[in-house]
Amino acid sequence: MMSFFPRACALAGLALTLPATAEDAVFYRCTAADGGLTIQNAACPPGSQQRIQRIAMPARTAPAATPAPAPGASPAPHDAAVPVPRPGVPAPGALPVLQAGPADDSGNGILDSDTLRRDAATASAADAAAPKAPLPPIFRCESTERGTYLHELEPAPPICLLMSVTGLGGGNTPVNAAGCEVVRDTCEAVPEPQRCASWQQRFRDARGRERFATADNHAAATAERERLHAVLAASDCAVPD
User: Fold this and answer.
1) Which residue of 19, 63, 84, 225 sits 20 to 30 Å from the alpha carbon of 130, by its own alpha carbon?
2) Structural contact between residues 180 and 162, judged by C-beta atoms closer than 8 angstroms
């Protein structure tokens, strides 16, 4: 004997235990003398009030037969995963491809991973196709005091060479008098095929000055190294490691 409460749960539980046939299922509602209600699939015991209820049960359908393979066709391997269609679930080929959705009130759109990959590939292709800015001119200068060095502007910065002032002014030269001659170093533009190597060398020199800079001029040395890094990064000339 099986007792279930409430009534809906009792009917559902009994329906699962009975075989699925085309005939009606018979349930017995038994009310005891103390008012207790019991629903069962057998006649009620003596002394209780009995009420019979019939419920139509659906007929069991036979499983669909598996079609035989066509002559000459290779049988599928036993370990091959064969998708089994289920009611209400679309086949994999019928699933829609998610695209970028319309922007909402905040201006944000809904993107799926496939859209993000396409956008990243498009951005990378655009960056690769975009022409890089040419390197600015750079000059190689010669100096009797500094030797050979690289300079970005033309003409080169002036240099004041000290000169003797003895005897100037008719012999009345002040003791603390001084004079110099302003000269400029000889500079020539670096040919374009060698321009990248010259800019890279200038960047290495600036990086070395930053590494050994004192606390007073470290900020200026860092700013110069960052400026040269930006010049190389904006061109097709690689930044040295």
Assistant:
1) 225
2) yes
How many distinct helices (H) and strands (E) make up the chain? 4, 8
Most distant CA pair in the chain, distance: 152
DSSP H helices in the chain: 7-17, 113-129, 195-211, 218-233
Tell the burial category of 196 from Cβ atoms under 10 Å away from its Cβ (0-12, 13-18, 19+). Answer: middle
Q: By C-alpha distance, which of 239, 147, 138 is closest to 188?
A: 138
Give the tokens for residue 103. 């922007």
Cβ atoms of residues 141 and 151 within 8 Å = yes
Contacts of 191 (CB under 8 A, 6+ apart): none
Q: Phi, psi at residue 151, to the nearest 5°?
A: -140, 145
DSSP code, position 194: G
Peptide bond into 155 cis (omega under 30): yes
How many CA atoms lie less than 13 Å away from 99 in the CB half-sphere? 2
Write out pLDDT tens, residues 120-134: 676 666 555 677 889
pLDDT in tens, 194-229: 999 999 999 999 999 999 999 999 999 999 999 999
pTM: 0.41
Strand partners, 123: none
Peptide bond before residue 85 is cis, with ω within 30 degrees of 0: no
Instruction: Determine the Cα angle at 90 with ends 84 and 92, to 5°.
Output: 75
**Rounded CA separation 82/36 (Å):** 53
